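Entry:
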Amino acid sequence: MIANRRGPRTRRPPFRVIVPLAVLLLAAVAAGVALLGGGDPRPRPVPFEARRVYETGEQRRIETGGRAVTYVPAGGRTLDSRAGCLAGAGGARSRALLADVACQGRVQASFRTTGNVTVDGHVLRFKDSADAAAAGAWLAYTDLRFTGGGTARDGRVDRRGRYVVVTAGASQDPKRTADAVAALHGATLTILGPGE
């Protein structure tokens, strides 16, 4: 008698059992990824709060273009209303403009850098990107209140989705002022995300 060298014959599970098990396994993995936050690739919007947009609770260092600027917070406010938005206007012209395009709120933060530059940042919120575009086309950095004392000497205005970001600064050193304004402005636009 010849012995079977392969051992006893095992029976393979039928194809109709393997396929449903594989589908269930893949569904469980996909559900786990979605629960861990990997299911929605869109970035979540930053809450409209001074402490979130400008990180006003602590000293922060921003590096840009090979230079670093350290900001010490001097104050921050969230004015989540039309009245709060209009309160940031630096004059009658800018107040009328913000009222016409229905500004809905303003976040403001003030900083002093370790290089002795005073910097103010404002984020204005509008109903939609069309209103933000209209405001952004007409606003200058000098149209909003500068809380640093004196007159802002450098600034920027940009739009990000339904927001307009205004950053202004002043010091005796124009180069340091420009660097401080550019770094905070760029960081704010990054925090707000890509827009619409």
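The longest strand covers residues 67-79.
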